[in-house]
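Recap quiz, item 2
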Amino acid sequence: MNPDRKLRADAQLNREQIIAVAHALIAEHGADVPMEEVARRAGVSIGTLYRRFPNRHELIRGVALNSFHQVIAIARTAEDEEPDAWTALTRFVREAGGDLRLAAGLAMRFAGTWAALRDDPENLRLRALLLKILDRLVRRAQADGKVRNDVSAADLSMMMALLLRPMPGLQPDLTPAGAGRYLALMLEGLRARPATDPLPAPEITLADLR
Amino acid sequence: MNPDRKLRADAQLNREQIIAVAHALIAEHGADVPMEEVARRAGVSIGTLYRRFPNRHELIRGVALNSFHQVIAIARTAEDEEPDAWTALTRFVREAGGDLRLAAGLAMRFAGTWAALRDDPENLRLRALLLKILDRLVRRAQADGKVRNDVSAADLSMMMALLLRPMPGLQPDLTPAGAGRYLALMLEGLRARPATDPLPAPEITLADLR
Amino acid sequence: MNPDRKLRADAQLNREQIIAVAHALIAEHGADVPMEEVARRAGVSIGTLYRRFPNRHELIRGVALNSFHQVIAIARTAEDEEPDAWTALTRFVREAGGDLRLAAGLAMRFAGTWAALRDDPENLRLRALLLKILDRLVRRAQADGKVRNDVSAADLSMMMALLLRPMPGLQPDLTPAGAGRYLALMLEGLRARPATDPLPAPEITLADLR
Amino acid sequence: MNPDRKLRADAQLNREQIIAVAHALIAEHGADVPMEEVARRAGVSIGTLYRRFPNRHELIRGVALNSFHQVIAIARTAEDEEPDAWTALTRFVREAGGDLRLAAGLAMRFAGTWAALRDDPENLRLRALLLKILDRLVRRAQADGKVRNDVSAADLSMMMALLLRPMPGLQPDLTPAGAGRYLALMLEGLRARPATDPLPAPEITLADLR
DNA sequence: CATGAATGAGGTTTCATTCAT
DNA sequence: CATGAATGAAACCTCATTCAT
């Protein structure tokens, strides 16, 4: 009856296993991996997969929300433990992009890519939560003169979502390393400089993210 | 018989129309648009589409090579007309990313994403050609002190390929503007600076691109 | 061990509840309601349902035999309490078709519809029992000049089985009323008349019912 | 482009074959025959079936509308060729119920049974058309003193829909004969008589049919 | 004995590709 | 050479049924 009731221990294990496998496969092959493939790699039958996630949408939702929770945890820790805003930002980018594979990218990407997820209340809640933390950090770093004034947390999250993708033409095992490299270059681009050209396009703010 | 034989005028039109439509659809919905959809939007029957491109692979190959040709033309013009290497680079990035929509991104992306294309001789030839031009420009700009020494043309093309994608959560019509914005930030990141932190990951060179 | 062993009181309740729910659902949605739906509406788990009825066949058998018992009771009462055969017949039709909802229709229908039930000894026994009572009533009413001579108890039961179904295009709550109406018209048709056209088709007798 | 454009000759043949097979199978086994079975018996591949009817609903719609057209043609002919209304009615009932197998029953049944069909404009149009003809005939026959005054065309069509179904427990090949028999008994019931009991239930009129 | 998780067969539907007109 | 019909493999999803807790 209660939808959030505790699962049986083995069922909970299965659920986690499915999410992990789906996360990896989606990151590698995109959101339309065969459900059978997910089931097989997770070591369950197709029926079990569908009992836990009644359709593809729910599976992706499960993966996205799961990722979001992890990314938010990283952001919170970074903000709490690092007194300096810029340091907190770089730590967040490094950890979210590196340790958790493509967690951040997936989370942010699916947050908006899968049309149906865009109206999911839980997803919107988590996204707002994350963007609030990042917004605080960006503004503090800007006040410290570390980040250029014409960028926003929306820019940061959008670039992360774009850069945290499978890299075409690179051996898959080089991808995490590559991601770290390009995220570092991105941070360089966001830094405040004595004199820089103005950015061309319209500013993108939190309000534009949906 | 001769595969390069001139097509009849109307057939040639069909071919171009198909490529244009396929390019747009792939850029928007990914590489697995239904062939029927491509045919319908191009105003031809499915049979005609298959007469021109015997299977999906050939269609994507057509799109990718076509894009590559355009991007290379842009790169050549920029190198020829701009005496300054850095100016040529920014012009290339701006024009390839802007005027041609997602041409550049598509080209580079498919160059490596579709496994079968990775061994396609024509594709390899064009890719080498483009990377050679970019490599010249990057090295010259580095010699001029405009670009940091620890990046390569491979980095440039990879980041372009990543940033030139549909932006999740943004209205589709904002995408080109957003692309311009993020490409500009990327160029900032590539600039040589008095003192910067070293890049974390292994250098990625032309040799790593396949 | 003993299949007819008394069930525990609560188990017996479960069993009755399941039959009632299954009866209603089958009457409304046909014989292929999901077993899970039956279980849910009966307030038991799917496991309990299967403990009581090892498969769908047994469940339907349970429903059909249960209905049959009720219909037979009605027929017996009508025969016992009404001295006039025609009155007994109309009373049977009215009560079996009305009070018990679709009990009669279901009973007779499933008796023959579900192939596997056609060879079920208990089902055959009950069907023979019911038809024997109806046969007595029809013959007596024919002897009284109340029922045309070219119809049989087989005709009567067949028409009841056909008319006691959900009525397409009618609000579900009008169905019982409609059933009463059409059963009444059917009885009119069965009446003996001074001069009527002969019935066209081959007579259908008790022997044809299987 | 034009959805009603002529099909190629062979495709038209296939379409008709599919409808015929689907009609027969649905009449025998209900509306949930496997699509594969329909395809196989029609001698086409599953793909062809789905090209012609994009889903089960469209297939059933095709069958129902096809039946309706035939039934309406029968009704029109009967009304045109028989000067006497009662004779026209009996002819309609006999022909619609006999020659066309279960055409009439199917048509009327699906018209309302498949919820989605209840709002189909073409279906509603045909149903109204048929009921109008039957209504004219019933009223004329009532004026002639041949049909009881408390029944309507709605009663007639509803009883036909109910009686034209597979007969449980009867060999399938006896079904058409049985249908003819029960339709004849039904007509007897509808006849005007010197003195009859009033019908119990609320009158059912054309307005109640949806 | 009740529960609800897991299995897997089978039905539905989509689409790349081939081929008759 | 264009058209659009036919094919069939593969994906999606739903349940009946079994079995661990």
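Residues 34-36, 46-47, 50, 54-56 of chain C lie near DNA strand F (CB under 10 Å from a C1').
Chain C touches chain D through 47 residues (CB under 8 Å).
End of item.
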